[in-house]
Design goal:
Length: 425
C-alpha cells in the first residue's frame, strides 16, 4: 500500500552526504582545475557527490527502514550495496560529464571577437630573471594557439611603453607568423618598471577598438608606485579581466601589487619560480580566457550574460538532480521511491541550478557558499518528496526479487507450484 511518509533520518543523512560531497568537490576544484579537462572534472565532481548522498541515504535506511520496510532490510540490503557505485558514481558521473561537454562547447558566436592584450615587462631586471627571453617565447606560443576569431595586442614597458603590435585580428596564419616574428626578434631593453604606464597603454589599445570581451595579461618581475583604485577603475567599469604573472622570488612587493590587480579585476595571479614555466602559464591563461567554463563555477568572458548558457546550466543541474533521485530508487529497488525521488531530484536540481546561475560571482568565498547551498538543496529536497508522491514498502521493481527467486532450489519452487495447484482445486 502506498503512503505519504518521510524519513527524517534519511533527510539528515542525505544532507550530511551532500556536505561531504561539497567538501570533496571543493578540494577537486582547487587541485584539479587546469590540470584535467573540465568535462572530466565535472564528471568526477558530480559522480562523487552522488555517491556520498547515496551512501548516506542507504545507511539511514539500513538503520531505520522507514521507507522500504523491514523486509527490504532482511532480504535485499546486499543487493542495494552492490547497486550503490553503479547507480551513483558511474551513472550520474557519466551523464554530468556529457552535460559539461555541452555546457563547455562554443555553440554561440560571441558578439565581437575576444581581445587579448599582452603587457610585457622589458625592464633591466628581466635580463637576469629571464636570461633566455622565455617571456617572449611564451607570448609567441600563446599567439600561435589563439583562434582566428580573436584579436591580439602586445605592449612592452619599462620606463616607457611601446606598442609592439596594435590590436589586430588573427585572421590568417600569415598574420600570426608576422606577430610571432616581432615577438621573437624583440631586442633587449633596459630601465625601470612603470606598471602604471603599462596599464594605461593596455587600456588605450582597447579603447581605440572595443572594450567588450577583453582580457589583459600583465607580466612583470618588479614593483612601481601605483594608485590602484584609480588605475583599475576603467577596467572594472568595463568588466575587463586582468590576469597577472609575477616572480615572488625576485620582488615580494611587486608580487603583492600584481595579486591586488588581479583580485580587483576578477583575474588570477600566477607565480613563476623559473622563467621556463612561462609558456605553460600563458597557455593556461589562454585556456581560462577562452574555455574555462564549468557547471559549478562563475561564467566569465563573452558568454557571461548568455541566456543560452544560463538555461543550459540550469537544465544540466536539473537533469543531474533527477538522475540522483533515480539512482536512489535503483539502490532501493523500489519503483515508487524511484518515482518520488526522481521528481524531487528534478525540483531540487532546478532550484540548485538557479542558485548557481544567479549566485556565483568572482569572489571565491562567496562562490563556495553558493555551491554549498546548491549541494544542500539538491540533497535535502529530493528526500522530502515522499510527502507528496506516495511511496510503498512493498512496491519494488522486483529486479532483486527475481534474482532472489532464481536462487531458490527446484524443490522449493516445485513445492510452491504444487501448493498453488491445490489452492486452485
Amino acid at each position: 500500500m502506498s503512503q505519504r511518509r518521510v524519513s527524517l533520518l534519511m533527510l539528515v543523512c542525505s544532507l550530511v552526504g551532500g556536505v561531504i560531497g561539497f567538501l570533496v568537490g571543493e578540494v577537486m576544484l582547487a587541485k584539479l582545475s587546469g590540470e584535467i579537462p573540465q568535462w572530466l572534472l565535472m564528471g568526477l565532481y558530480f559522480g562523487q557527490y552522488a555517491f556520498f548522498v547515496g551512501l548516506m541515504c542507504l545507511i539511514a535506511e539500513m538503520i531505520s527502514p522507514r521507507l522500504n520496510g523491514d523486509g527490504w532490510k532482511q532480504r535485499y540490503l546486499g543487493f542495494s550495496w552492490k547497486m550503490l557505485v553503479p547507480s551513483t558514481f558511474l551513472m550520474v558521473g557519466v551523464v554530468a560529464l556529457l552535460l559539461q561537454l555541452l555546457y563547455g562547447s562554443s555553440f554561440q558566436q560571441a558578439s565581437g571577437a575576444n581581445n587579448i592584450v599582452m603587457v610585457l615587462d622589458t625592464s633591466g631586471s628581466m635580463q637576469s630573471s629571464d636570461p633566455d627571453n622565455q617571456l617572449f617565447k611564451a607570448a609567441a606560443d600563446m599567439v600561435q594557439r589563439m583562434d582566428s576569431d580573436m584579436n591580439i595586442a602586445v605592449v612592452t614597458f619599462h620606463d616607457q611603453t611601446n606598442v609592439l603590435q596594435p590590436l589586430t585580428e588573427l585572421s590568417s596564419q600569415s598574420v600570426k607568423d608576422e606577430i610571432v616574428k616581432k615577438l621573437l626578434q624583440y631586442p633587449r631593453t633596459d630601465g625601470g618598471t612603470r606598471i602604471d604606464l603599462a596599464l594605461q597603454a593596455g587600456l588605450d589599445q582597447m579603447q581605440a577598438n572595443q572594450m567588450a570581451n577583453s582580457t589583459v595579461v600583465l607580466m612583470s618581475d618588479g614593483y612601481s608606485d601605483l594608485d590602484v583604485p584609480a588605475a583599475l577603475a576603467p577596467y572594472r567599469q568595463n568588466q575587463v579581466i586582468v590576469h597577472t604573472v609575477g616572480m615572488s622570488q625576485i620582488d615580494a612587493d611587486g608580487t603583492a601589487l600584481l595579486q591586488k590587480i588581479a583580485t580587483e579585476t576578477g583575474g588570477s595571479y600566477f607565480n613563476v619560480e623559473h622563467a621556463d614555466q612561462m609558456t605553460g602559464i600563458f597557455g593556461q591563461i589562454y585556456d581560462m580566457s577562452r574555455t574555462d567554463r564549468n557547471i559549478v563555477s562563475e561564467r566569465t568572458g563573452a558568454t557571461e550574460e548568455s541566456m543560452f548558457y544560463a538555461i543550459t546550466r540550469v537544465v544540466s543541474v536539473l537533469i543531474i538532480g533527477a538522475l540522483l533521485g533515480l539512482a536512489l530508487g535503483l539502490i532501493f529497488d523500489n519503483r515508487h521511491l524511484a518515482k518520488s525521488f526522481t521528481i524531487g531530484g528534478a525540483v531540487s536540481g532546478l532550484l540548485a541550478g538557479l542558485v548557481l546561475e544567479m549566485g556565483l560571482s568572482s569572489i571565491d568565498l562567496l562562490d563556495m557558499v553558493v555551491r554549498l547551498l546548491a549541494c544542500s538543496l539538491l540533497a535535502v529536497i529530493l528526500t522530502l518528496f515522499t510527502l507528496f508522491v506516495p511511496a510503498s514498502t512493498s512496491g519494488g521493481s522486483s529486479f532483486a526479487k527475481r534474482r532472489l527467486n532464481s536462487r531458490q532450489s527446484p524443490r522449493a519452487l516445485d513445492a510452491g507450484n504444487q501448493s498453488s495447484k491445490r489452492f486452485d482445486l
